[in-house]
Amino acid sequence: MASTPATHRIGFVSLGCPKATVDSEHILTQLRAEGYAISPNYDEADLVVINTCGFIDDAIEESLQAIGEALHENGKVIVTGCLGAKGDIVQRSYPNVLAVTGPHATREVMDAIHQQLPPEHDPFIDLVPAQGIRLTPRHYAYLKISEGCNHRCTFCIIPDLRGDLVSRPVNEVLNEAERLVEAGVRELLVISQDTSAYGVDVKYKTEFWNGMPVKTRMTEMCKALGSLGVWVRLHYVYPYPHVDEIIPLMAEGKLLPYLDIPFQHASPRILKAMKRPAASTNTLQRIRAWREICPELTLRSTFIVGFPGETKGDFEQLLDFLDEAQLDRVGCFTYSPVEGARANQLPNPVDEDTKQERLQRFMETQAAISMQRLKRKIGTEQQVLVDAVSESGVIARSTADAPDIDGLVYIEEHAECQPGEFLKVRIDDTDEHDMWGHIIA
């Protein structure tokens, strides 16, 4: 059946983390379902939607610049996302925006669009592919399992922006995963604010998927996802005790041997001030136990240096933790006094020069660790997922590499393959981030 040609064109700018990307995908899917076209530039758009980030100062500045650019180039702008939840900062900066919403607000965004550009025909579901509209390449997709967070970390304002934990029904998550796999997705990246807490808010309610009972709980969800025959990668995993349950699934090949755990620090005093769970001694013991069960396990984490009250001794404890933990992939940030964060009220703030000096020492320490850990892979065979192919070679990722944040595998030879294909590669060389290899199968 031929559908009415779309007359309204919407420009879209998506900023922020993978969770914001999923919000953008939901809005784009609804736009296409209602017959709106997506414009690739400002000139052809009837209005522009900007999904913003408001977590740290740099992200706020980037979002405000994007809003200003869209207003200058187009003039009609709707703002959504985390920055929209930070009081009236958008309205004060740009009073002529058409509307402002917070994150996870597809309905509110669509209502604002309808006020400006009413849909011209009834929606037809066949305007949209079964897997919805995606901003990622065809072969991988983010799978958001919950919204919000029950933690009250003193450096973080996410609960103020996105609210308390709300878990998606597990059958809904698994049905979406199935549709994605059927559409050609080869890697599912499980995301949330707190993946380990999945289902706590609904008391691990049992749902039914493909006729089988499945608890709304991380372990049971992971077992089901592991049956789909694709890479499943876990992000934002807090080190709760039940995380131990999923390591055997990784050893069995049902999940990628990869854990993204935001430890944030190692000093017990600083962790307490951050209101973070776990102690570094217990964490080191668990890391050793995990690696005994799954030697191929890749551990990624993020840390904050220069937190208010952080002493030289606290920082040295953090460096000692890095040496002992031997993490594979690490990101680090200096403490940013985000407006509304309770940590801003703590005594003894660290000066900016000291923050930068500690950041540099931290990254130098971790670079040496990462280089040595990757060097061990020279001569090994690795399964890789192809991201891009050109005349000069192939860019791929191993099981140890999440898109955008980790390293890459470079294959500097012509190959008859396509993005989304798996290859077997022998590793020839490495540095602190990336690997180089040649195809063996």
Structure summary:
32% of the residues lie in helices and 22% in strands. It has 441 residues and is an alpha/beta fold.
Mind explaining what this structure looks like?
This protein is of the alpha/beta class and 441 residues long. The protein is 32% helix and 22% strand. It has 12 helices and 20 strands. It has helices at 18-33, 57-73, 89-93, 106-116, 158-162, 170-182, 218-225, 247-251, 268-274, 280-293, 312-325, 352-375, and strands at 9-14, 37-39, 47-52, 77-81, 99-100, 140-144, 146-147, 166-167, 187-191, 206-209, 212-215, 231-234, 258-260, 298-305, 329-334, 381-390, 393-398, 409-411, 422-430, 435-439. The strands form 6 sheets. It has a 5-stranded parallel sheet, sandwiched between helices. Helix 3 (89-93) links the parallel strand 4 and strand 5 (99-100). Helix 11 (312-325) packs parallel to helix 12 (352-375). The two termini are 44 Å apart.
Shape: globular
**Tally of helical segments:** 12
Global structural class: alpha/beta
Number of strands: 20
Q: What is the helical fraction, as a range of percent?
A: 25-40%
**Spatial strand sequence of the major β-sheet:** 2-1-3-4-5
Question: Could you give a short account of the major beta sheet?
Answer: 5 strands, parallel
The share of residues in extended strands comes to 15-25%
- The chain-level mean pLDDT equals 89
Which regions have little confidence, pLDDT < 50, spanning 5+ residues?
A: 1-5
End-to-end separation: 44 Å
Radius of gyration of CA atoms, rounded to a whole number: 23 Å
